[in-house]
Amino acid sequence: xxxxxxxxxxxxxxxxxxxxxxxxxxxxxxxxxxxxxxxxxxxxxxxxxxxxxxxxxxxxxxxxxxxxxxxxxxxxxxxxxxxxxxxxxxxxxxxxxxxxxxxxxxxxxxxxxxxxxxxxxxxxxxxxxxxxxxxxxxxxxxxxxxxxxxxxxxxxx
Length: 157
Hints:
Layout: H1 3-12, H2 16-42, H3 48-56, H4 66-92, H5 97-119, H6 130-155
């Protein structure tokens, strides 16, 4: 097994709790950023649930499945995104944690609005409006939150 794969496996093995905690911190950073900073700076707040609903073909409106879309988005942020950070970014970027986190957040932003949004029938990067930049800020803060919590927790061991 290559040393890069071994390191990734070692980072994940026995660290699932830390990965989930990093995701919770990242989602908290996302929510605070979007509820406060995005509203102040961009007069808008990203709403990922409609994107998830469109991707999965879930009905909206009263009696719709917004709750499921929210659950999917939070589960992705709490489990998949920090797992991706640990398996990918942490292995290949020899940078300080804050830079790795910001780069990971920016990559997630491009993934969400550059790939997933068009798949849901929206324009690429939502035509670069205020919602695009609000989402970018939120995703970068999500990545920084994930990196901070995982790296700070790892530094203690």
